[in-house]
Amino acid sequence: MPNKTVFITGASGVVGTVLMNGLTDFNVVGTSLAEHDLTNYESVKQVIPDDVDVLIHLAWKPGGIYENGVFDPANVEMALNVLEVAAEKKIPRVILASSVHAKEYRPNYKAATVISQTRPTSIYGATKVYVEEIGKYFAHYRNMQVISIRLGGVNIDDSVNGKDEEHYDAIYLSHKDLLCMFNKIINQQELLHDFTTLYAVSGIQQ
């Protein structure tokens, strides 16, 4: 059986770089925001190949994450365009990069879950929730499988101390665990639901 083709948006970011280099069992191609304007539907349609098995949408315009007033509509527009093109090209599975900031995590290291209602910790987190809801629409009404992964903290140094962020050890996600999760999702033949939310951290550091 030929290797699956995986296409990644935001391929030059930290998570994208780890996936581009580490998903060695697949035919992986991608694009970055520096290469293509994903807020332009025709550009998205042109850059995403027709023969993609799994599309991973990581692209996100850089900016402040934690400031309560930060909102960039381009991030929603990019997600809409990518999902619309995926539906048009009949790409069967799309993975959306959400964030643990879509659901409050506690300083006492009590793990957040995806079962209870969302409680975004910032406008960044709220935007991720919005993108998740858009993904639900495409999963339920546009004939595709959508997996939203609420990613923990991935850093270039692959260190639990890799970012100067309060309680970072509670949300740290290692490169190894990141690759393990994506490998399993890409290889999984059947999913229980058309839309799935997953919470991805490496473990609680005591």
General description of the model:
By secondary structure, the protein is α/β, with parallel strands linked by helices. The chain has one domain (about 5-200): NAD(P)-binding Rossmann-like Domain (Rossmann fold). The chain has helices spanning about 15-20, 40-45, 75-90, 125-140, 175-185, and strands at about 5-10, 25-30, 55, 95-100, 145-150, 195-200. A six-stranded parallel beta sheet has the order 2-1-3-4-5-6, sandwiched between helices. Helix 1 (about 15-20) crosses helix 5 (about 175-185). The longest helix is centred in the middle third of the chain and has 19 residues, at about 125-140. The protein is globular. The model has no long low-confidence stretch (mean pLDDT about 90).
Which CATH C-level class is it? Answer: Alpha Beta
**CA-atom Rg in angstroms:** 16 Å
Order of helices and strands: EHEHEHEHEHE
What is the residue-averaged pLDDT?
A: 89
Task: Fill in the CATH topology.
Answer: Rossmann fold
Total DSSP E strands: 6
Structural class of the secondary elements? alpha/beta
Residue windows where pLDDT falls under 50 for at least 5 positions: none
